Each structure stands twice: as C-alpha cells, then as structure tokens.
C-alpha cells in the first residue's frame, strides 16, 4: 500500500493565495519533511516554457518537471506544494490536503500580492467553484483527500497540527 516508503508523501494544493506556502513552511519546520515548492523547482530546472499572455504565467513543461521530481519522491518525507494537482502520478501521494479560503479573504490576499483584472478574477472563480478540490477528487482516491479551511492566523497552527496527526497515524498504520 505504501510502495515501500518509510515516511508518507503529502500534497498540499489549492488556489493561489489560500496559504499553501505558509502552511508548508510551518509543516516542514515541525516535521523536518522536505518542502517541495513546485514553482521553484520548475524555475530552477528550466521547466517553464513560453509565457501565456491570457493567464499571465509561463507554461509548465510537466513531463520534464515530473522526471526531475521522481527521484525526490521515492523515499517519502516530502511536502509537495502546488496550485494544481492533476498531472502528478497518483502513486506519489499518501495524503492530499486541499487548502480552502473564504472568497473575500482570498480577494484581499491576492490584491495585496498585486494581482489585478482577469488574473485576480480567475483565481477567485477557481476558489468559488472549488476547482482544485474537484481536480483532486478526479485524480486521487477519496480516502486520501482532506479539505482544510485556512482563513485566520489561528487556523495555520490548527492545520499544521491536523497534518502532523495524520502523519503520525500513517506511520502507525504503515510501518
Ligand atoms: N491562515 C492565514 N491567515 C491569515 N493570513 C494568511 C493565512 N495563510 C496565509 N496567509 C497570508 O496570505 C498570503 C498568501 O499566502 P501564501 O502562503 O503565499 O499562499 P499560497 O502559497 O497558497 O499562494 C500571504 O500573505 C500569507 O501571509
């Protein structure tokens, strides 16, 4: 069931701005798992192709990125952080955590980040329609998907605690 991993691999996903990086940074500090920020990995390894003017971001060369990440994922103990989740191999992950945020809170966070116009509206729509949760449900077994609300500062610690407790349970059940 666990593909020989001695630690689980965790995917943290959700609309940009919901708080994935903040959560992953805290979780990595606490667990000493490796935080794999997929956008950074893609940038460092030249996996970004030409710029998409409609979505105001570069195209991701997914095959190249997956080849680079495959070795990192083998032993477990990874926290993968990305705003999309349907192109990773299903076998990589033991737990998928979809971070959710209230729309008005998300709007303020993305506006503060400098998002405007279509980019801002598209991301808010993405959260309103639970697009990433839907994507997770189409890509992974329901039993490994967990939805975490992340609107307030207090919820950051609560969500870290939830994932840490999940990791401990995974170890008890799989090692
Ligand atoms: N639970 C929270 N409460 C208040 N602000 C938060 C919370 N989580 C994240 N933030 C803030 O929201 C912004 C976006 O968070 P970030 O972690 O960069 O999101 P993401 O990685 O999903 O794009 C940052 O300014 C961060 O400090």
UniProtKB/TrEMBL annotation:
It catalyses: AMP + ATP = 2 ADP; ATP + H2O = ADP + phosphate + H(+). One of its GO terms (biological process) is ribosomal small subunit biogenesis. Residues 112-122 are annotated as: LID. One of its GO terms (molecular function) is ATP binding. GO terms for cellular component: cytoplasm; nucleus. Residues 37-60 are annotated as: NMPbind. Its EC number is 2.7.4.3. It is found in: Cytoplasm; Nucleus. Keywords: ATP-binding, Cytoplasm, Kinase, Nucleotide-binding, Nucleus, Ribosome biogenesis, rRNA processing, Transferase. The keyword NADP does not apply. Its main location: cytoplasm. ATP binds at residues 17, 19-22, 113. Belongs to the adenylate kinase family. AK6 subfamily. Broad-specificity nucleoside monophosphate (NMP) kinase that catalyzes the reversible transfer of the terminal phosphate group between nucleoside triphosphates and monophosphates. Has also ATPase activity. Involved in the late cytoplasmic maturation steps of the 40S ribosomal particles, specifically 18S rRNA maturation. While NMP activity is not required for ribosome maturation, ATPase activity is. Associates transiently with small ribosomal subunit protein uS11. ATP hydrolysis breaks the interaction with uS11. Monomer and homodimer. Interacts with small ribosomal subunit protein uS11. Not a structural component of 43S pre-ribosomes, but transiently interacts with them by binding to uS11. This is Adenylate kinase isoenzyme 6 homolog. The gene is 101735934.
